[in-house]
Amino acid sequence: MQQPPPAPLPSNPFYATRQDRVALARERYFERGERPSGLVSEPVLQSWTRCLGASRSPDEKISFDPVSKIRTATLLTHNRALIEAARDPIAELETVIAGSQARAMLTCSEGVVLIASRPTPGDGPLLLTAARVGVNIAEDAVGTGAPGVAVRTGEVCHVRGGEHFFRCLASLHCAAAPVRDASGRTVAMLDLSSEAGPFRFDAGAMAHMYATCIENRLLVGAARMHLLLRFQSSRSMFGTPLEGLAAVDGDGMVRWFNGVGAQ
Description:
The protein is built from 9 helices and 8 strands.
């Protein structure tokens, strides 16, 4: 007796990979005009909205061109203290991520690269042109990217592959964390980017840790006129991103805490 054909398997309503979810989100948002809530993060979605509001098209071709030499020189001079505070942490970070084919970049608050780590064998054409001093990687220049989103939210941000607004940047994966000054104002972004595929480590945590190192060094350098307090539950945490810092003026008033100190 002939057996009836097997019943068709029910379609899976879930998308197994992030790449599938992002592709669906782009289809819904850019082609159908629907809000793809739950498929991409809200900060990324808001960035897409800002880019469309600026009359940008996701099909544009992006070139990473440096700003003028005069503007680059001005930014390097204006951010001299920041660059000095970041030099050693970024050199250490470059050693830590060696072999991962990821690049590190420090931008000013305007999104212009101030420091870039050395090229790696995994660099493709995008990173070779983007990771250069003087290149503007802010949202208004290159669309949705981790530095541009993180400067808006003030939090660590990931932008993976197709989450970039422009399709031509879909091979990039990036994570960024803000660096703040004593007043709490974001003065820089530390970005990790890979063109050799998704990160093989927690890039967000790494960016946050070294952004904190830079921030602490910047704060310590700015506390010359104040009494600097370092505190933690263990001496072994002094000199690490886990130490609390506070500055006290001559009248005994606390002028600022770092993030750990405030907690």
